[in-house]
Amino acid sequence: MTNHTACRDKSSILLIYTGGTIGMKEDPALQALTPFDFSQILEEVPELGKFAYRIDSCTFDPLIDSSDIEPAHWVALARIIEENYDRYDGFVVLHGTDTMAYSASALSFMTEGLTKPVIFTGSQLPIGAPRTDGKENLISSVEIAAAKDSEGHAIVPEVCICFDNLLMRGNRTSKASSDNFRAFRSENLPPLAEAGISIRYNTQLIRKPEDWDAAPKFHKELDTKVSILKIHPGITPQVVRNILCGPETRAVILETYGAGNSPSKQWFTQLVHEASEKGKIMLNISQCRAGSVNMDIYATGKCLKDAGVVSGYDCTTESALAKLFHLMGKSTDNGTVKAGLEKNLRGEISK
Ligand code: ASP
Questions:
Q1: Whole-structure pTM value
Q2: What pairs with residue 257 in β-bridges?
Q3: Which CATH number does the domain 226-341 belong to among 3.40.1790.10, 3.40.47.10, 3.30.9.10, 3.40.50.40?
Q4: Which of 37, 149, 243, 340 could form a Cys-Cys staple with 229, CB 3.0–4.6 A?
Q5: Ligand 1 centroid to residue 102 C-alpha, Å
Q6: Per-residue pLDDT for the chain (351 aa), expressed as one digit of tens each?
Q7: Coil, strand, or helix at residue 137?
Q8: Residue of 36, 63, 65, 173 to mutate, ligand 1, most atoms within 8 A of C-beta
Q9: What DSSP line would sit under 215-275, residue for residue?
Q10: Among residues 2, 5, 18, 21, which one is catalytic?
């Protein structure tokens, strides 16, 4: 962990730099973008010095393109936040956009009872590029991470993604564009804040801890034995069997059509029943970006429910994966995991 200090006063923020486009530049030898040193990021954003905040930073070593992110990196992030929790008012995580929605979802489940903001951000263009979106994203994230109400409590004590002037609950987001500055969408929950001339907070949507004085819990146990089965026309029994019934799989996310529907062919239903009998946890997540699973509308959805498939409601796939890793890491009992899936743990479902 490397520390750089920009300015000392009032609110204190820890910037955690993991890598990603925001901190990359063209390597002439490779003719590709590679990460560069964090101190150069601060040089590119002298505006940060205008805040009366103490801004310290630490960097991952090595820095990573977020396509290489692994659950072990989430544990490392949770550990950094836990170890520094009492020393800072908020945390800003600089992260590549490719898997930011997965990481923000994971950190939301790994932190329980947060009283301080954890804001993920990054950019589509490197911070040194003339038209970079990185500066604005970073400056808004720092301001939001430091924001407090009249009682001195954090305005947004949640894990969020701040991107292109929108603050979104992290576990509600998906990366929606590889080239537009509005890279992330939160289809099933409006933004928690919008940055215009001032930052307007959607306070009734923001989650608050039950007890501001209680220390948050950090859950670092993750069980990653999860597979994702995306249903599509032409899918074969062999593919479905391999994914649903594989010995390495403890849980399967079924990415279904519309309101949670799957093919009604007999072989498909039989395989779902077989997987259920083998004790597999099956979670129904819609391929639609907006809206919710409801297995009571169509016969094809009812079949899944009858076979013991659990509704994912309006959860994103990214969040469902993280929720399963977290719940399975905490319990070896599949009944307990299924009961946890039904609950709204961190605002990830509208229930
Ligand atoms: N490949 C990069 C990453 O996810 C893309 C980005 O940061 O936008 O690390």
A1: 0.94
A2: 261
A3: 3.40.50.40
A4: 243
A5: 13
A6: 434 444 444 799 999 999 999 988 777 888 887 777 777 777 788 898 888 899 999 999 998 999 999 999 999 999 999 999 999 999 999 999 999 999 999 999 999 999 999 999 999 999 888 999 999 999 999 999 999 999 999 999 999 999 999 999 999 999 999 999 999 999 999 999 999 999 999 999 999 999 999 999 999 999 999 999 999 999 999 999 999 999 989 999 999 999 999 999 999 999 999 999 999 999 999 999 999 999 888 888 888 999 999 999 999 999 999 999 999 999 999 999 999 999 999 999 998
A7: helix
A8: 65
A9: PPEE-------EEEEE--TT--HHHHHHHHH-TT-SEEEEEEBTTTB----HHHHHHHHHH
A10: 21
- Backbone torsions φ then ψ of 34, nearest 5 degrees: -130, 155
- Who's near 50: CB < 8 A, 6+ residues apart? none
CB atoms within 10 A of CB 287: 14
State the fold for domain 2-218. Rossmann fold (3.40.50)
* Residue 19 CA, ligand 1 centroid: distance in Å: 8
The residue whose CA is least distant from atom 3 of ligand 1 is 96
**Cβ(295)–Cβ(284) below 8 Å:** yes
Which amino acids bring their CB within 6 angstroms of ligand 1? 19-21, 65-67, 96-98, 122, 124
